[in-house]
Amino acid sequence: MPKHLVSINDLSKASIEKIFDLADDIDEKLKNHQTIDLCRDKIMATMFYEPSTRTRMSFESAMYRLGGKVISSADTKATSSAAKGESLIDTIKVIQHYADVVILRHFNDGSAKLASENSLVPIISGGDGSHEHPTQTLCDLYTLRREKGKIKGLNIALCGDLRYGRTVHSLVYGLAKFGATIFTVAPDDFALPEHVERRLKSEYGTEVKKFKKFDEQLSAKDVIFMKNLKKGKAVKDDVIEENLFQPIPIEYFDAIYVTRIQMERIEGTKSRHESLMSYLVNKELLEKAKNDTIVLHPLPRRSELSYDIDKDKRAAYFKQAAYGVPVRMALIAILLGVTEDKIKMTFDKSKDCILDEKCSNHNCITQEQENVQHKFIKVEDVENTYRCFYCDSEKIVQN
Ligand code: CP
């Protein structure tokens, strides 16, 4: 059975750590100009139905640096037979005989999962619609580990477009696996999808702390929560003072993760975009942050991240993009089984799914492709609620 990576939930914390340990070794070797030829006889196909700079090129660089070869389709939608109407399933069934591993970026949520079901070789998601971007999360977590020395116990603010941004939909689970505390800073329109919050709570026992703006006034309860984070004490030990309000304490954050509004995924973006301007991360904001708070961004950026902080030592987003090479080298080598390092993958099993309901997410791959069986997994502890096997959107089904 090939090992696919379509969701960060496919990887345990131990597996992620194994990838990171190998990435550390590889990075050291790259710095010393040592040859790494673990994939000498391997071919990687990159199939990108959506634009990319970092994901595609760092994967390709990674494969070349492993001594392997690459066949690249940088604009698959326009230049492959997809333009003639070929389905994703048919395309994968063909490509699997041309390459040993496929990196897929696709505009539909759940496309990577569907591809993995139809492939004899590993499928690695390079981002599927608004759903997930698991290898970006590996880069994000690895940057935290390298720059902060640990992930457990860090206070991380995720800000911007958390509804449509696929990177945060993977990152929250990754942070939860490692025991970081997650704060979200986003207006209601751009809040984390409910199903993501629910899964965080039910599978990871993690609740996010939500704010609408950086300068939002905290309620008494929030202030106590912050105090407790600082002291590492339980909330119940504190007496909540009535009418106590304070601005959101930016100095509590160990990392600020900024995201771009996903203009390409939403309609009527202009006014909504304006509502996000209060999230601007700039010099003025960083002046209030700690000396060792780092700023992360999956990039590309627009107006939400000011160029005026690029020279600040706390700006870590270009390092984050650079770490993409050793991290992806390690991932490819492990999934192809060319190293001693073995990892266990934890796929959802489709045998417990119900089959006769349509997914309610209009961007789900099951809406797009013919001959795909709709499948759902029962959400534990939530009555009549089922999760799409492909895109993870939830649906209420009356029995
Ligand atoms: N972070 C990221 O996915 O960038 P690209 O879209 O350039 O690949």
State the total count of DSSP E strands. Answer: 14
The CATH architecture assignment of the largest domain turns out to be 3-Layer(aba) Sandwich
Identify every distinct bound molecule in the structure, by name, code or SMILES.
phosphoric acid mono(formamide)ester
Order of helices and strands: HEHEHHEHEHEHEHEEHEEHHEHHHEEE
Biggest sheet, in brief?
Answer: 5 strands, parallel
- Using the coordinates above, name the CATH class of the largest domain: Alpha Beta
What is the overall shape? globular
Strand order of the main beta sheet, please?
A: 7-6-5-10-11
Structure explained in plain terms:
The longest helix has 19 residues, at 13-31. A five-stranded parallel beta sheet has the order 7-6-5-10-11, with helices on one face. A four-stranded parallel beta sheet has the order 2-1-3-4, with helices on both faces. It has a three-stranded antiparallel beta sheet with strand order 12-13-14, with no helix packed on it. The chain is globular and about 65 Å long. The relative contact order is 0.16. The protein has 14 helices and 14 strands. With 399 residues, the protein is of the alpha/beta class. It folds into three domains: 8-130 and 325-335, Aspartate/ornithine carbamoyltransferase (Rossmann fold); 135-322, Rossmann fold; 352-396, Roll (SH3 type barrels). Helix 6 crosses helix 7. The structure holds phosphoric acid mono(formamide)ester.
Concise account of the structure shown:
The protein is an alpha/beta fold and 399 residues long.
